[in-house]
Amino acid sequence: MAEQKLVLERPLGQVALHLSVLQAFAARAVEKVEGVRPLHAGGGLKTIFASPEEGLHITLADDRVDVELRIAVVLGYPVHEVAQGVQQAVREDLEGLAGVRVGRVDVFVRQVIPPQEALVLETESEEGEENG
């Protein structure tokens, strides 16, 4: 199967953005939001986006992208504010950095985790990055 891409018409020609590039921009945007954590042990953003039920999905349309995210929120952070922060960060990064028009950014909070567990996941993630 060919890799999906979004082709944008610009005054000087075309710009093709592959799905993996858009996913990377969206993943980095999620990292900026305080209170979002991985859903499984092992940590890291790859874990947030590990499986079809829990992750990041971008749908490419002719002139826009639609984004669907499933996240975990740390207990003590207002869930609606974290979700809105994720929506805003993803929209701003995709529009600002990739130059694409964003249709929808749907955020589903799949889990609320205790702060102690979030610290353990964060520590495991940092150790994995150092060893990887």
Q: Your description of this structure?
A:
The protein is of the alpha+beta class. It has one domain: 2-Layer Sandwich (Alpha-Beta Plaits). The chain is 41% helix and 31% strand. The chain contains four helices and six strands. The protein has helices spanning 19-31, 45-48, 79-98, 115-131; strands at residues 5-10, 13-18, 36-37, 56-60, 65-74, 102-113. The strands form two sheets. Strands 3, 4, 5 and 6 form a four-stranded mixed sheet that branches. Strands 1-2 form a two-stranded antiparallel sheet. The longest helix is centred in the C-terminal third of the chain and has 20 residues, at 79-98. It starts with a strand and ends with a helix. The relative contact order is 0.19.
Summarize the helices and strands and which ones pair or pack:
Blueprint: E1 5-10, E2 13-18, H1 19-31, E3 36-37, H2 45-48, E4 56-60, E5 65-74, H3 79-98, E6 102-113, H4 115-131
Parallel strand pairs: 5-6
Antiparallel strand pairs: 1-2, 3-5, 4-5
In total, the number of strands is: 6
How many domains would you count in the coordinates?
1
Low-confidence stretches: none
Radius of gyration: 16 Å
Kindly list the characteristics that best describe this protein:
41% helix, Alpha-Beta Plaits, elongated, 6 strands, 132 residues
